[in-house]
Amino acid sequence: MTVNLSDQHSLISTWVSELRNVDIQNDRMRFRRNLERIGEVAAYEISKTLAWKEVEIQTPLGIATHKVLEEQPVLATILRAGLPLHNGMLNYFDKADNAFISAYRKHHKDGSFEISLEYISCPELENRTVIISDPMLATGSSLVKTIQYLRNEGRPKEIHIVAAIACTVGIEYVVREEPNVKIWCGDIDDELTAKGYIVPGLGDAGDLAFGTKIQM
């Protein structure tokens, strides 16, 4: 299942437009906050699909019955670009366990690259719902590799991916490799360059959120 949240939410479409806008995206605080807000709405939408139970709550005047989540999900993100999106979801799933994965494109002189994963920190994942945030779902390679690494730590019962912008090529690759995953996108673009960048996209989300880096 793939959901384009811009089809349902004019606010998300507005925030994505600001993420893309070269006249606005130089404001790093606003860029991070827009990613965070997309994460908040994605968390809200995902929460509608999660299992719940009824509990009785003692109030000062009596008993109230409420639906609450059966369990909190595990929020996972790919460092560093995924942090604002992750924080947005953590604002809503505020009791969630968290997982962090260091993944990046290791570039070669011929212009090709491979996905390098050097660090993972996560809680128990067995039979749990895992939500992975990454602002750009381009080729899908880093997300598929991340899911494979997480599966080595346990077998989640359900995996969701949250991206600000996704490419149809990357979505197709992720679904082909992980057919049961659910993808939630702020918007979807159709073009991917030979170097694996989304067009029109928005540029490098990590650099725009946190500053430029030395290319490895």
How would you portray this structure in words?
Helix 2 packs across helix 3. The longest helix has 20 residues, at 28-47. Strands 1, 4, 5, 6, 7, 8, 9 and 10 form an 8-stranded mixed sheet that branches. The protein has a two-stranded antiparallel sheet with strand order 2-3. It has a two-stranded antiparallel sheet with strand order 11-12. The protein has 216 residues and is α/β, with parallel strands linked by helices. The two termini are 34 Å apart. The chain is built from 6 helices and 12 strands. It is globular.
Core attributes:
216 residues; alpha/beta; 32% helix; Rossmann fold; eight-stranded mixed beta sheet; two-stranded antiparallel sheet; 6 helices
Write a brief caption for the model.
32% of the residues lie in helices and 33% in strands. It has 216 residues and is an alpha/beta fold.
- Rg calc: 18 Å
Largest sheet: 8 strands, mixed
Low-confidence stretches: none
Q: In CATH, what is the class?
A: Alpha Beta
Shape: globular
Which architecture per CATH? Answer: 3-Layer(aba) Sandwich
- Structurally, the number of domains stands at 1
Average the pLDDT over all residues and give the rounded result: 91
Residue share in helices?
Answer: 25-40%
Please specify the SSE layout and strand pairing.
Elements: E1 2-4, H1 10-20, H2 28-47, E2 52-58, E3 63-69, E4 74-79, H3 83-92, E5 97-107, E6 113-121, E7 129-133, E8 136-137, H4 141-153, E9 158-167, H5 168-177, E10 182-189, E11 191-192, E12 198-199, H6 205-210
Parallel strand pairs: 1-10, 4-5, 4-7, 7-9, 8-9, 9-10
Antiparallel strand pairs: 2-3, 5-6, 11-12
Helix pairs in contact: 1-2, 2-3
